[in-house]
Amino acid sequence: MNQTGTAATIDSHKDVETTVAIIGSGFSGLCMAIQLSRRGRDDFLILEKSHDIGGTWRDNTYPGCACDVPTAIYSYSFEQNPYWSSMWSSQPEIQAYLQRITDKYDLRRKAVFGTEIVAAHWDDAASRWHLRSAEGRTITAQFVVLGVGPLNVPRLPKLNGIESFTGSVFHSAQWDRSADLTGKKVAVIGTGASAIQFVPIIAEQVGQLQLYQRSPAWVLGRKNPTIPKALQKLFAKVPLTRNVFRAVAFGSRSRWPWGSTDTATCISRWNGPPRPTSARASRIRRWRPSSPPTIRSAASACFSPPRTTRPLLGPTLR
Ligand SMILES: Cc1cc2nc3c(=O)[nH]c(=O)nc-3n(C[C@H](O)[C@H](O)[C@H](O)COP(=O)(O)OP(=O)(O)OC[C@H]3O[C@@H](n4cnc5c(N)ncnc54)[C@H](O)[C@@H]3O)c2cc1C
């Protein structure tokens, strides 16, 4: 790659040529684009199948969607945000952060939205990649950087008879905001990192909730303290203080007792009939070594030892 690079131009109908083609505009793709910009390069394009930046944080809008590591460390080290409102920030706040940074580095002019890359072919003679988009454009690039993410295509299980179900069916990653769950009978399939965030919230709203799980996850209860405005101002004024805060958050996370039986709790299987919302607290049960055998055995069918799976952070364990 030459040092200056020529600006990649975008025409929504024509084939394009660029030095670096970045596929995806989530945290990874944006980071790559920012780092190129910071080095004075303009010869790259961001190819994005959707119509906005953000990836995970654009797509996941379910109730309670938030990161599950402290946001001070779930953000770019070179673009720390002094204004996170709480320790574990919510999806709207994280997406707003990514939008702000995209604008700060003027990356929208480098983004080709609505462009899903479906094929890549390396031309040995020309030493170039030829990428093909779903609508048939060709993008030629010397370098291709994949920032397509691990989780951006929701996995929908094949359920016999689902096509004849007349109610709403949607994946948490494609939350149907038009579906009003108030007073409804709702079944949630799966108890992973997303369910642990939205189940306690919709439990307040629905008429009946059934939660289906295959393997009980390990769950650590946590509080989510707000970061006082005065502290945010200090972080903004004195960068050293937010570096210290970030370092402390990083250090404390690496000491978390993953899987320790002292602090770990376990979501038990839903094994009762549908209950009214007043029983919601019982849906997420604590498991401790001293728990009654009934609760322990509820979790034991697919029991995985504590240190073998990443524990989830449950915001509302009681
Ligand atoms: C609800 C949720 C919460 C999470 N919380 C955390 C957390 O707290 N901590 C943590 O470390 N991780 C978390 N993750 C994992 C998260 O996915 C990563 O942290 C990170 O956001 C991934 O960024 P990415 O840029 O690699 O991928 P993504 O954010 O998935 O972005 C990929 C982008 O590539 C685009 N794309 C994909 N294929 C193509 C194609 N063929 N052509 C063009 N564009 C394409 C997509 O549209 C998308 O915009 C969470 C994930 C989810 C779903």
Characterization of the model:
There is one protein chain. The chain has seven helices and eleven strands. With 318 residues, the chain is an alpha/beta fold. It has two domains: 16-146, 3-Layer(bba) Sandwich (FAD/NAD(P)-binding domain); 171-221 and 256-314, no CATH class. Helix 5 packs across helix 6 (239-254). The protein is flat and about 60 Å long. The protein starts with 15 loop residues before the first strand and ends with a strand. Residues 1-7 and 257-303 have low confidence and may be disordered. Bound molecules: flavin-adenine dinucleotide (FAD). Flavin-adenine dinucleotide is lined by residues 23-29, 47-50, 55-56, 60, 65, 67-69, 74, 116-117, 147-149, 151-152, 194.
List the helices and strands and how they pair.
Layout: E1 16-23, H1 27-38, E2 44-47, H2 56-59, H3 91-104, E3 111-112, E4 117-123, E5 128-133, E6 138-146, E7 185-189, H4 195-202, E8 208-212, E9 218-221, H5 229-237, H6 239-254, E10 265-266, H7 293-300, E11 312-314
Parallel strand pairs: 1-2, 1-6, 2-3, 7-8, 9-11
Antiparallel strand pairs: 4-5, 5-6, 9-10
Bound molecules: flavin-adenine dinucleotide (FAD).
Q: How would you sum up the major sheet?
A: 6 strands, mixed
**Assembly category:** single chain
Q: Which cofactor or ligand species appear?
A: flavin-adenine dinucleotide
SS-derived structural category: alpha/beta
The end-to-end span amounts to: 56 Å
Form type: flat
Instruction: Say what the CATH topology of the largest domain is.
Output: FAD/NAD(P)-binding domain
Q: What is the total domain count?
A: 2
Helical fraction equals 10-25%
**Count the helices. How many?**
7
Give the helices and strands as they follow along the chain.
EHEHHEEEEEHEEHHEHE
The CATH level-2 architecture of the largest domain is identified as 3-Layer(bba) Sandwich
Which consecutive residue ranges, at least 5 long each, have pLDDT under 50?
Answer: 1-7, 257-303
- Strands, count: 11
CATH homologous superfamily heading of the largest domain: FAD/NAD(P)-binding domain
Structural Rg = 23 Å
Strand content: 15-25%
